[in-house]
Amino acid sequence: MANFEFLDALGQIARDQNIEEAELLQALANALLAAYKRRDDSAEEAEVEINPETGEIKVWGLELDLDGNVTREWDATPQDFGRIAAQTAKQVLMQLIRDIQRRQMYEEFANREGDIVSGTVQQNDNRYTLLDIGRVEALLPQAEQIAFERYDHGSRIKVYIVEVRKTNKGPQIVVSRTHPALVAKLFEIEVPEIASGLVEIKALAREPGHRSKIAVASNDSMVDPVGACVGARGSRVRNVTNELRSERIDVVPYSDDPIEFIQSALQPARVREVRLDDETGTATVIVHDQQLSLAIGKEGQNARLAARLTGWRIDIRSESQESDEVEGVPEALTDDIAELIEVSDPAAELDPEVIEAEAVEEVEETA
User: Fold this and answer.
1) Residues 263, 267, 273, 279: is their CA dihedral positive or negative?
2) What is the CATH number assigned to the segment(s) 4-110?
3) FRET pair for 66, CA 20 to 30 Å: which of 59, 262, 271, 284?
4) 75-81-83 Cα angle (round to 5)
5) How far apart (Å, rounded) are the C-alpha atoms in residues 173 and 301?
6) What's the pLDDT tens digit per position in 155-204?
7) What is the SS3 assignment for 113?
8) In the CATH scheme, what architecture does the domain 116-176 have?
9) Tens digit of pLDDT for each residue in 310-334?
10) How much is the pTM?
C-alpha cells in the first residue's frame, strides 16, 4: 500500500535538516526491524524494506543457509505493522535528526580549529564563560580569559577556536581570548594584504591584555608591510586594539638579518649596536643611556617580547655600562650588573642607576 504522505513528510524533514533522505529511510528501516524482532511471532531472520517511490513498508522473513546466503524469503509483514511503524517513525526520526545534527556540527567545527568566530556572552561562572556562536555554544575557560576583561551578558566578542571535542551531546568547542594567533587572525580580517598573501606575519609575541609585537614582511616590493597593517592614520591597528580592549600592539618589519630584526623588535627604543653570540644564542644590545628604560620597558616587557619575537636571548646595556664608566667597578662586576638589567624576571622593577650605585657601595665596603 502506497504512503505518499509519509514520503512527502520525510522529504520535507530531509530538506529542512539538510539530511540525505536515503539516510533517513535506512535509519527508520533499522528501527522498524528492531521493533519487529520484539514480537513473539517474528521470523528468526528478517529485514525491513521501505520503497523509496511509494513509501510502502514490508517485512521480509528470511531463511539462510550455513554460509548466510538467503535460500527463501516471504512477506512476514504483520497486519498491525502500520501502527507500529507510525509510532516508531516519530521516535526514530527525532533521535536521528539530533544525531545527524550533532555529527554535522562536529564536522563543521572540527575543520575550523584555528579560526576566529564572534560569540555572544550567555553566562559566566568561576570555571568558564559560555558563548553563543550560532548553531552551537562555545566554552571560554578561565585559563583562556584575559585577567581583567569583563564578559557581560549579551556582549559580543571575537574568540579563537582552540579545540573541538566530540561528545555524546554534540561538539564541545573550546575558545580563547589569550591565544597569540587571535591577534594574527584579527589582522587578517582588518588587513586585505594579509588575507591575500601580499603581506605575511612572520613572527608574533604576546602578553595578553597588555602588549603584543608582530613582525611582518611583504611579498611585493611595492607594498609596505608595516604601513599596510597600521592603516591610514592607524585605523587598521586601532580596530584590532579596540577588539582586544586596548591591548597595545607594535607592528615591526621582519628581516632575515638577525641584527636588523632585533633592532626592529626593540622599537620604540633606538638601538645603537647589536652583537651576536651564535653559540649561546645571546644578542648583546647597546643603547644610548636615555634609551635604556625604553628598550627594557615597564617590568622588562619590551625586552621580553622582543626576545620571544626574535628567538634570541637579549642582553641590554647602556653606553655608560658598556664603556665601564662607573669609577671603581671591576669589569666582572659590570657584567653582573648587565645580567641584572637583562630582564629575565618580568616582575622585577629595573633601575640601572640604583643598581650601579649599590654595586659601587659594595666595592667600597670590601676595599
Assistant:
1) negative
2) 3.30.1480.10
3) 59
4) 160
5) 32
6) 999 999 999 988 877 788 999 999 999 999 999 999 999 999 999 999 99
7) coil
8) Beta Barrel (2.40)
9) 999 999 999 988 775 444 444 444 4
10) 0.69
